[in-house]
Design goal:
Number of helices: 13
Pfam families: IU_nuc_hydro
Organism: Bifidobacterium asteroides
Shape: globular
Protein name: Nucleoside hydrolase
Bound molecules: beta-D-ribofuranose, calcium ion
Keywords: Glycosidase, Hydrolase
Order of helices and strands: EHEHEHHEHHEHHEHEHHEHEEEH
GO molecular function, one term: hydrolase activity
Length: 313
């Protein structure tokens, strides 16, 4: 099976991406690299370990990543309103008795590329700070890795921080721009596409009806997130499955249709943090990414419920 690394700022939809992956026998999850974003790094690591233990996979290692953006020391305000103060919808689950590894996430990423090469897919669902640092330390990984499937940005104008900035890119636009321009084989799953994949309480009730510790946790956590979406995005009916769609595409690319695009991130203009696609300058293939433009919503939602439920049994 293909090998995967999930790089998580473990909030609600990151946890759903992890659950999706754990319910996928067709992928081998090597480990989780931790980042900051929805919550501070430490809380994210704690959440990842606790969820792994609750879902019966305490053997999967969790590596501590960088805890702040590449160009400044301060943390950005964690998004407590959307993901809850603890990042997992204010649901309380037992702490794992395992600790994060002592190896850093950046070393883990580089070592994994050296070991698995083209068989490795790396799925960042938070800021791109860890991957940027890994490329800086070992530039050759750009040619050695199988693929990066990232959740972030948006091709059409659409943001959740402000009208042009999506949260993951907004945290560290410089890192994102360097990754985008590095020539690493990457697929961008943006907010304009993930906001088409909405989950409602009708689906979370299916987890509730399963009535296992894991499924009750997913239902409670996701209902909190659906409540936040109702408050902050009243025009939508349900919550966005941003991070799970990236994990799903890493496992099965046919969920989305993509276009080749020469991508960059605005780092010093008035729309700092915006991802900009250019399909007229495709003559530099090393700078070309695949950008999702369309998603098979019904098929993805079916697979999402089936795999996350499998992870809870
Ligand atoms: C992204 O931002 C985070 O809040 C979510 O976990 C997701 O990765 C959506 O913009
Ligand atoms: Ca995330």
């Amino acid at each position: 099976a293909k090998k995967m690394i999930l790089d998580l700022d473990t909030g609600v939809d990151d946890t759903l991406a992890l659950s999706y992956t754990l319910g996928s026998p067709d992928i081998d999850l090597l480990g989780i690299s931790g980042t900051y974003g929805n919550v501070v790094l430490k809380q994210g690591l704690r959440n990842s370990l606790a969820v792994l233990s609750l879902l019966g996979h305490p053997e999967i290692p969790v590596y501590p990543g960088i805890d702040h953006p590449s160009d400044k020391d301060e943390f950005l305000t964690p998004s407590a309103d959307i993901h809850g103060k603890n990042g997992i919808g204010e649901v309380v689950i037992p702490d794992s008795n395992k600790e994060p590894e002592t190896t850093s996430a950046v070393d883990f990423i580089i070592d994994s590329v050296k070991t698995y090469g083209k068989d490795l897919v790396y799925v960042p669902t938070g800021p791109l700070t860890n991957l940027d640092a890994a490329i800086k330390r070992a530039p050759e990984i750009v040619d050695q890795i199988g693929q990066v499937v990232l959740m972030g940005g948006a091709l059409t104008v659409c943001g959740n921080v402000n009208p042009w900035e999506e949260a993951n890119i907004s945290q560290d636009p410089e890192a994102a721009n360097r990754v985008f321009r590095s020539g690493i084989p990457a697929k961008m799953i943006g907010l304009d596409v993930t906001l088409q994949t909405l989950l409602t309480k009708k689906e979370t009730q299916q987890w509730r009806d399963m009535d296992t510790p894991g499924s009750r946790f997913l239902a409670d956590m996701t209902d909190f997130y659906i409540g936040a979406y109702a408050k902050f995005h009243p025009h939508l009916h349900g919550c966005g499955l941003h991070d799970p769609l990236a994990a799903a595409v890493a496992i099965d690319p046919t969920f989305v249709k993509t276009l080749p695009m020469n991508m960059q991130v605005d780092v010093d203009g008035p729309t700092r943090g915006r991802t900009i696609g250019d399909n007229t300058r495709l003559n530099d293939p090393r700078k070309t990414m695949e950008v999702a433009v369309q998603v098979d919503v019904p098929r993805f939602l079916r697979e999402f419920m089936s795999r996350t439920s499998a992870a809870c049994r």
